[in-house]
């Protein structure tokens, strides 16, 4: 165990919430920003402290600690969850270790934040929910990190749906497109291995859009019909571990064991219809998440590439003046924006992690079940499993005959 370094925490005079984070690559860096900034921007009941960061490579984790401002390091997550100077365990590892770490942390009396998707299977997610429920009785909380709920514009969209501005919902249309797998020489990183990632674009991108669609609609999917595809089935083996989005290749190849793309339709309990597309092969689309909701009183549209904006069409206005209008979501009355910059000075991707930390700290202090809870994460996991089951049944895919 590395000794604590000089703390960089702001002296807020508030009781601390000492965070221990497992994993320090892309998501770990994003979460570090969230923990570092939340208490400096928002007035929080507890002051988050970047207490310990954990990774298997001692030199690399020390470098990450110094880059992101963590006071101490561990190389074994089991040691981290047992530490007395950690109140909350933040899990930023690939999906195959989520269940084991989360359950151990909850049993050790810690609050937990777990990256999405909650787990690699429904059975693991169920065990995590059971552990979270038992811990709840001891005053602990557990949250899953669906950060796109925390874009001010998506939170505003949720508020507008709840206010009835969309009316009876008929359609939800969501796409989440990336292109980092287009090159067949891109190496076989952990994100392309089923035993580590659980699934491919489905669990990585599909989990986000299922959660966002259900959150904005305010209801859950009742059923799905799906097709999935793995376009490149064999890839070069990587030489070194990476975040999974970048890597150098080596000698030899191995099989890709996850989906490259997943397309599915769904039906909400109310009868509203939904369509979903998740892919890593949409050339030119880097992190393009778009969602549109259509109801009998209006429509809402959001595009992550323009995340300070929300489009709204009020169908109750006379046709003469009606049409989509752009709401610039930078006013202090908008969700999360009371503490940021003056109107017009927008936010970005990293702020979603600051907002996530803010909401979780408040839930911990208030003893409230945070949203999205582990139960919400389990429900998304069930949708992902249903998508895979449907895609595996060719019966739902009717061939066109001459
Ligand atoms: C990679 O596809 C990835 O980093 C996801 O894992 C994240 O959850 C998403 O927010 C951005 O893309």
TrEMBL record:
| Any Pfam family the entry gives | GFO_IDH_MocA_C3
Q: Which residues form the GFO/IDH/MocA-like oxidoreductase domain?
A: 156-300
Q: Which UniProt keywords apply?
A: Oxidoreductase
Any one Gene Ontology molecular-function term assigned to this protein's record: oxidoreductase activity
Q: Check the record and name the InterPro entries matching this protein.
A: Gfo/Idh/MocA-like_OxRdtase_N, Gfo/Idh/MocA_oxidrdct_glycsds, GFO_IDH_MocA-like_dom, NAD(P)-bd_dom_sf
Oxidoreductase recorded as keyword? yes
Whether Thylakoid counts among this entry's keywords is: no
- Domain spans labelled Gfo/Idh/MocA-like oxidoreductase N-terminal: 17-141
Q: What PANTHER family does this protein map onto?
A: BCDNA.GH03377 (PTHR43818)
Q: Specify the protein name.
A: Dehydrogenase
Species annotation: Streptomyces griseomycini
Taxonomy of origin reads: Bacteria, Bacillati, Actinomycetota, Actinomycetes, Kitasatosporales
